[in-house]
Structure formats: C-alpha cells, structure tokens
Give the backbone structure.
Amino acid sequence: MPARRLVVLVAAAVLLAGCASSDPEPRAGDDPTASSGPTRGGTLSVAIDSDPGQLNPAITTSGGTHTASELVYNGLVELTPDLEPVPELAESWEVLEDGALYRFDLRDGVTWHDGMPFTSADVKFTFEEMLLQLHSRTKASVGAALESITTPDADTVEFRFSRPYAPLLLQLDVTEAPILPKHLYEGTDVQKNPVNSKPIGTGPFTLESYTPDSELRFAANEDYFKPDLPYLDEVVMRIIPDKGNQVVALEAGEVDFLFGTPGPDLPRLKESGDVEFLTTQRNPGGSNCIMTVSFNLDKPIFQDVRVRRAVGSALDREQFVERVLFGQGKVAEAPISSGIGFAHVPGLAGLPTFDRAAAEMLLDEAGWQRDGDATRTALGVAGVPDGTPLAFGFTHFPTFAPYAQLLRAQLAEVGVDVTLTPLEPPVFADTVFTARDFDTNIISYCNGADPEIGVKRMYVTSNIGPVPFSNSSAYRNAEVDELFEQARTTVDEKARTATYRELQERLVEDLPYLWIVETEANRAFTTQCSGFSAAGHFAETASCSR
Amino acid sequence: MTRRYVLRRVLQLLPTTAVILLVGFLLIHLAPGDPVLALAGENGDAEYYAFVREKFGLDESLPRQLAVYAGNVLSGDLGTSYVQGRPVAQIIAERLPATLLLTGTALLLSTVVGVAVGVFTATRRRRWPDVTVTLATLAMYAAPVFLVGQLAILLLALRAGWFPVQGMTDARSSATGVARALDVGHHLVLPALALASQEVAAVARLARVGLLDELARDHIRTARAKGVGERSVVLRHALRRAMLPVVTVLGGRVGHLVAGAVVVEVVFGWPGLGRLLVTAMQARDAPIVLGVFLLVAVTVVMANLLTDLVYAWLDPRVRYG
C-alpha cells in the first residue's frame, strides 16, 4: 500500500474514532423503553466466587452463603446505602425505656414461599435457635446484651435488653439477622436440616435449583410483599472461582454482573464502554473494611509508641491506594471507617501522615541509630540488647502480598528491615491469634454497620486470645474498654458520637494499630442491566433490557 | 490369568488405601490451620469457637479423631462435611459425573489421537512431517495444563468466539434432553482438549518409539517379504505389540488426568471433584478432602489392575498366576 494512502486511511480512522467518542452518550431518559419504567422479565446471570455450601444465612457469616441466599430472605429492616434502617418485614418500630426495649410491628399478609403465613413466632425462633447460637456477629453483639424476646401477638415482637442497647436497628437487616421459617426448622438440628439447601424464605426470589459447584437458579417470587418487585424473571448465579475468569466471562457476555473487579482489569473495562460500575464499601463477607497493620505489643521493640508512630509516618498511604488498590479505595483517615458516618472522626491530631523525615527523627529519638543506608540498630532501647538490628516479620494472607511488598519497600527507606511471611487464612489465624507468633501483620478488619459489630473486637482487653480476628495487637487500655461499654449503652446519637470521638482520640494517641486504607469493591455489570443495590437483595430492583 | 489373581489384586487394595488414608489424615490434621475459621466466621467470641470445636469433635485428641474416623470409614460412612453439614458420600456423588465426563473424554481423546499421531510420525520417520509433529508434541508435553487452558480460552473462546469460556452449561438456557447434551458437549471441548494435551503428547511419543522398534523387527521384515501390504503391516502386525508401552502407562495416566483435572476444573469453572478438593483444602474441611483422596486412590489402583489385565490380553506371552 502506498504510504500516502496509508496516511489517509489512518487519518480517516482517527477522525471516525474522534466522532464516535464525541457523540453524546445515550442517556437512560432517551431510551424509549425507559418512560414505561424498568423492563420486566429476563434472566440475569451473575458470577460468584465459591460454592455457598449451604444456603442458611442465619447460621453463618460466610460471604459465600450470604451472597447466594440473601435474595431468598428478608430482615426486619433494610439498610439504605447511608445505613439508615427502613421497614422490611417490620412495618414500624418504637424504641422504649431509653433503648432497653424495642417493639416491632410486623407487616401483615407476608407469606413464606411455601404459602404459610409469616408471624412473630418466626422472628423469635430464628433469633433464639439460630442467630444467637450460630451467627457469630449477631451472637457476639446482640446475644451478649439481650435479656429476652417476647411475642405479645402474631404481629408484634419485642426485644428486651438488660441495659440500653444502641446498635440494634443496624443489626436487623438480611445480612445480620435474616428471618427463617419456624415451621420448617422447629425440632430439627438446624445445621443439618435439608431446608438449608432448599431454602424457603419471604424474599424477592425463590430458589429453583442448586447444582453444587456449578450454578444456582432463582425465580421471581410472584407473591412478594413489595409491590411490583422484582422486575427480573430469573437470576442465575454461576460459580467461577477465578476472578480473572469472571472478567473474561463478563466480556464474553456469559455473565452480566460481577461482585468485584480485579484492579488490573478495571481500566480496560472502564474504557470498553460496555460495563457500568457500582462502587461500594459493602460486601457480603463484611462491610466498611479497613486494611489494618497490627503491632504485637508483647514484643519489646513495639512497646515504644515512637516506633509505632515512626512506622506510620514512613508509610505513604496514597501509594497503597494507587498501586495496590488501583484506586478502589481511599486512605483511612480514622480508626473507624468513613462508612459509619456517625462514628467516623477524620482529622484527629496525632494520626500519622506520610513524613519520612519525621519517621527518621522518631526512630533516632527512640534509640534506633542509623549508619548511612544500613538497617538501624538499637542503642539504649529498653528490653533490647544494644546492636540489635531494627528488623521484624510481617505476616499476611498470600492475597495481601502487594501490601506487604510495598510496606517492606517503604520501611527500608527509613532503615527498617521487614521479612514477609505469607500464610493461608486458617494458618494465619492459628499463628497470629493462638500461637501469637508474629511481629506485625495486616488484616482486613471489617467494621460493619456499627462500631459495636466489627470495631470493638479489635481493641477491648477481654478479646485478646485464641479467637480469630480479635484483638491482634493485644492492646490493653481500661479506659478504652470503658468507652466502648459507654458507647454501646448510649442510645442518643449525638452523645454516642462524642463517645466514639473520645475513644478514637485515645486510639490515635496509643497507635496499637495503623489504619492504612479503606477498601472498596466495584460491582461491574453490562450496560444492558441496571438498578442494582450494593448489599442484601442486590437484584431486587434490578432489570435488564434485552 | 486366573480368578485368584484378580481377587488377590483386589485384596491388595485394602492395605494400599488404608495407608493412603492414614497419610492423608495425618497430613491434613498435622498441617497448620484450623477448620473452625471456615465454620465460625471471623466475628465470634471465644465461647462460640469452643462450642463449634466441640460440636465437630475438633477438641478431641488426634488419635481419638483418627479412631473415630477409621471406624466410620470401615462401616462405609465417610463422615459429614464440616462446612456443608451434609454427608461426604452424597457431596462426592454429586460432583463425580462432571469429573468422569471430563477425565473420560480426555483419556479417550488422548489415547486415540496420541496413537494416531504416533503412527503418523513413525511411518514418516525423520522426514519433515515427523520432525514437525514430533517437535509440536514435545512442546505440548512441556506446556503446563493451566497455560494451555488459558491460551485456549484466549484464542478459541475470546478471540474466535467458537467456545464458551467457562461452566458446563449456558447460564441463560434451561434446555433439556438432546439440546442440553449438545450444550454440555460444547462446553466440554476446551477443558477436555486442555486436559488431554499433555497426555496426547506422551502417548504419541510412546507409540512412535514402540512402533519404530517393532517395525525394525524380523517378523515385520518377513511379513513385508511375503508381500503383505504396508498398511496391514503397520496396523495389524506392528501396532498391536507397539501398544504395550502405551498400555503400561495407562494406570499412571489416570492419576495424571485426575491431578490435571484439579487445575482444568478451576480454570474452566467445571463443577467437578477437583474444584471440590481445592475448596475443601482451603477450608480445612478434612472429611471431604479424605473422601476425595479415598476415591482417587481406589481409582488409580483399579486402573493399574486393569492395565495389567489388558497387558496380558495384548501380549499372550504374559501370564499371571
């Protein structure tokens, strides 16, 4: 081909591409079908990571089970994206006796998928026989405070606590407290009941079939109590363990929706224009998660807060957001996640920010001397022989290796030598929480909807010990323990916010942990579908135009 | 070949599988890591973890757990999955057909194609078709299964669009009968090819060498001298005995295929035993892991037995007593 013709062709192609991209994006409002509301019918195909194993969300907090089963069930309330409780199975509620008594008026005319009526007895049974026995989060928080559940009549249920209990309304959605049918579970071993793989709920979808390790098919519940919902006829969940293959399946059109997008694939999918995203901090396995570095405070080198502060100042968190998360998240600005609006306090004085010179100075002051570019050594550090190098281990899940590598590189800059130890999750839990054989580690601590659910466990003295993902640093501060207790029993939100502020001021002063980044997930879905919510019955209001 | 011989070989299964189970049991229980994490989630309190340990007998001593497990297996009970709360036998039975379909297809494919390639190359010895194909099979033999799988997805599924990228059926179809069988067949092509690729190469190379050896023997020269056609010489006279080394490795290949299936099932989202094993290992779900071990061990031992029997049939000089 003569060079000139090639130039012309290239120019034409560039021009065409330019025209195409300058075309106005088609808007939802321009779509002729949009005027008549969401499209009804159709099948949504969704990729999930793992086989759920079983489908009873009341006896486990497993992300796999919750992802697959929350379409089938309801909670007493639903949480909006801003974590406001709105009615679901409960039509309304009253908070009495300063928060020691909660009375719920249940919705009339709700039926289980098998046609039986839903009543207050189902609520009481689910709590007493399942949630407070086997749902680890609800058992540890609600269970520890609850006195009794009573059912004055079929439409009313009352929760009575020994002292005022603040967080209850945030713990009653389908994730924390799904309601299951008493008539199918009563008198059985709830963990071995066959209903666990053929669930009967009140939710927007009914389970049609479950082929282990392959797919789950859900059909719309024709009698759903929320009018007009759901729009879809069918939801199919495909089990695709490898995240890369999930992206491939989305690109090939075999699935329509992914719960998360691997960072490296994100720019390509965004550019393709065929995929839309919903960014959220909520995930079936836990929401409002903060990647957190623990110091083993039983080790002499970490007993000086200046060392912990220096490590914090040596870390450039923006780089973690860019290089590890590919922008899917943000720098953590407080011990409590920004997803819990009333308790999050940004801009606390003393929270370390990236300042390498400050880090070096703190280490010098703490007695860790540096000679040129070498690793620092101890000179007059309490409990550490002089000449000991400032070297420690960093234990992490293999999937968190990118965090570990970046941390090691950044700490090497200030003369700290870090050795990485990747461990599979069950081994990690054993090593860190039972054997306590580690120096530092990184954990994704999910805060949940309320600090009582996922924050308190990291800090209170009573939670040091062989419990996975408890107080990893072995932080002991009686004042902090007392503040958590105070926050739990304060129902007034302003007063509660003040307590959490005071609490976080203490934590930032002591720095038992370093809060690195808040992680976010990007639900990715084909532009043909819309109306997804981030958590719970994610496809309840979804529709696809096909 | 006597019935007594077969019986004795079958009886040998018992100590073999017992040792495999014992080693498997010790490996999974002595390896660090606690199944309670997968069972109880990560927000429980100490009391709850203790309750879960007790419920599943995880608080007992190792010898005691082994004794209980061995007793159950002897009475035909493989136990209950920690995570799923269902009988292991039932869970394995659900996944078995998918794996049988995949490994069976790959075994058939690798044997037929492998022998054909072997014949093709042996009869064109040292000419360019032999050199090209032999080099190609060498490359196939060296390529890891996961690489072949990913390449197949990239080229044949994503670029060419001929095959689906994952799963056993089309998510949006609820077809039954013949349509469903065709759908499954369409989904089977890539994983079976990926799984068979290495085995095709191994079989082809064995068949080529065996056939070349055979073609150089006296009885072949005699056959040719008598005027037997070349086609008949190769296929009737030489190939049967050249198959001996191919058959010898049959039992071992079954083991390879099962190992390869673990990788292929994860890459292609194929709902079989391999994926079950990977998930169960990650959750430290010991009853499932041991159940799969048991099944694989019995299969491989049986495949070896079958190999020996076929060997005797192919070479009448071999006698078992």
Notes: The first helix of chain B runs from residue 3 to 30. Chain B has two domains: 12-74, 93-314. The mean pLDDT of chain B is 83.
